[in-house]
Amino acid sequence: MAEERFRKEETLEMRQRLIGQSCRLFYSEDPVKIVKARGQYLFDENGKRYLDCISNVQHVGHCHPAITKAATAQMDLLNANSRFLHDNIVLYADRLAATLPKKLSVFYFVNSGSEANDLAFRLAEQYTQHEDVVVLDHAYHGHLKSLIDISPYKFRKLAGQKEWVHVAPLPDTYRGIYREEHPNPGQAYADTVKHLIEEINKKGRKIAAFFAESLPSVGGQIILPQGYFSKVAEHVRSAGGVFVADEVQTGFGRTGTHFWAFQLQGEDFCPDIVTLGKPMGNGHPLACVATTVEIAGAFTANGVEYFNTFGGNPVSCAIGLAVLDVIEKEDLRGNAVRVGAHLKDLLKKLQQRHEIIGDVRGVGLFVGLELVTDRRTKTPATKTAAWVVKRLKEEDRICVSTDGPWESVLKFKPPMCFSMEDAELVVRCIDRILTGL
């Protein structure tokens, strides 16, 4: 166990004094002090082990030896900026291109999902020469000012909605305006975007982009209805805009069946811009924008160089390549399919026994368990969700968090090495806690 520098109380006191208080901790009433991690497990200062159902960033598992080895070997050799010619950046871009549709063939490397989405926004504006953006309700696209402006999840608590930002309904078939029983919710929700664009055009405005997370996460682990993206893309492109798929949360095989979550919408669908982030570097700050030759060409034509000091450096790209290798060698997509299906199946069985479970949804290792006080009215059981999270941490040393507009969805986005036994343990513990209600 790594040597502890401060007692937990001292660390907490220093954190409260030195770090901005808007940077919140998990379990703020009684935080966990984590000093070590391996795979899907976290260890506190006393050596107690916690099962991690939260860290989708540590995609192939915490402190994976292959990632550490690749990082240290390249760090020992060279780490310079991308203005120097180097193999790693082109090797990595080539490997990423092989996972994406052919037309997404130009890459810009950055350091975070927020940087990637900000750059995607710039590319869209430059290419279309339009300003307006359509986003989904409850969306979150990052912490930069440009992205707060297009994230209803944030701007509703702050300065409010800008006139160039337009919010379309979240295609939530559990509690949205069109639900499971609707004959074609994908088409119906896409029509809401079509009507929104018509309203925008009537005001003499034009859209640059439609931004959407391929699987809305902050919105409550939403699985979008089939056909939605293809239809929306038609409406957006005919209005002169581009389609941006935000894969920051869901990319790199988390869905199991596909490498990218937007591919769940069918082989014929391809976004114009895709943003990648969180899991890309397994905890190392690494993100990217992938786009078409035409959009990249328009960005080049403005005559202004795009330079990102750390983006695409040799160490970051070595780590990115190692992450792709581990996903392949350890069949982590296959694991996401098997374990994700098992977890979902166990939660569905739990739903039959506990009236408070309103919905179980997900794909691969992206799963949501929505709690409600009444299944008919679907009233969010926010307090109970928080209570379950607290009990799991205190009694079972399992780390889970909540999401959704009312924080009533228990979300599961664990490292991709999460096992069948881990899934069974989590469900057993949730069952015990809900039975105690």
Characterise the protein shown here.
It comes from Poecilia reticulata (Guppy). Its cofactor is pyridoxal 5'-phosphate. InterPro entries: Aminotrans_3, Aminotrans_3_PPA_site, PyrdxlP-dep_Trfase, PyrdxlP-dep_Trfase_major, PyrdxlP-dep_Trfase_small. Pfam families: Aminotran_3. This is 5-phosphohydroxy-L-lysine phospho-lyase. The chain has 2 domains: 8-63 and 331-436, Aspartate Aminotransferase, domain 1, CATH 3.90.1150.10; 65-330, 3-Layer(aba) Sandwich (Aspartate Aminotransferase, domain 2). By secondary structure, the chain is an alpha/beta fold. The protein is globular. The model has no long low-confidence stretch (mean pLDDT 96). The protein has helices spanning 8-18, 65-77, 87-97, 113-128, 145-148, 152-155, 185-202, 228-238, 293-300, 314-329, 332-353, 382-396, 420-435, and strands spanning 34-38, 41-44, 49-52, 106-110, 132-136, 165-168, 207-213, 242-246, 273-276, 287-291, 357-363, 366-374, 379-380, 398-399, 401-403, 409-412. It is built from 13 helices and 16 strands. A 7-stranded mixed sheet has the order 4-10-9-8-7-5-6, sandwiched between helices. Helices cover 38% and strands 17% of the residues. Helix 3 packs parallel to helix 10 (314-329) and helix 7 runs parallel beside helix 8 (228-238).
